[in-house]
Fold:
Amino acid sequence: MGLYQSDWAKAPPHVHAYRAKTTSEEGHYHIIEGFTQPANGTNTDRHTHYFTGITSFENGHFHRYYGISGPAIPRADGTHYHEIEENTYLAYNEPIQIRYGGVVYDPRNQTRKTHRHHLKGKTREIVGNEPLGW
Structure:
């Protein structure tokens, strides 16, 4: 099996755009946006999509998130959408001052306070595939 599951007996693969706002924690929130991973499916077959990314950079940090969308929900016009809901991974309440690189999080460090956010939203339009270079 390749990187993405493909069953050519079903509808061709497609992806969805998504954008949502996380819950507010520690006095801030994050925006998530991106494209789901490709999946074959129609508006009635209850297929799902993987989604993954990093949140917007707020309050000196970002969070990683991973999830699987809910099943396809048909619309009256013959298209469909998916609900997405997940928790972000942990990040420190106070950003670490580092000279080079990005945000560092070490799950073995139990002394620094951490937080996470909840995200919930719906996918948007269907696109044929992830735009090149996105």
About this structure: The two ends are 24 Å apart (CA to CA). The longest strand covers residues 118-127. The mean pLDDT is 84. The chain is about 0% helix and 35% strand.
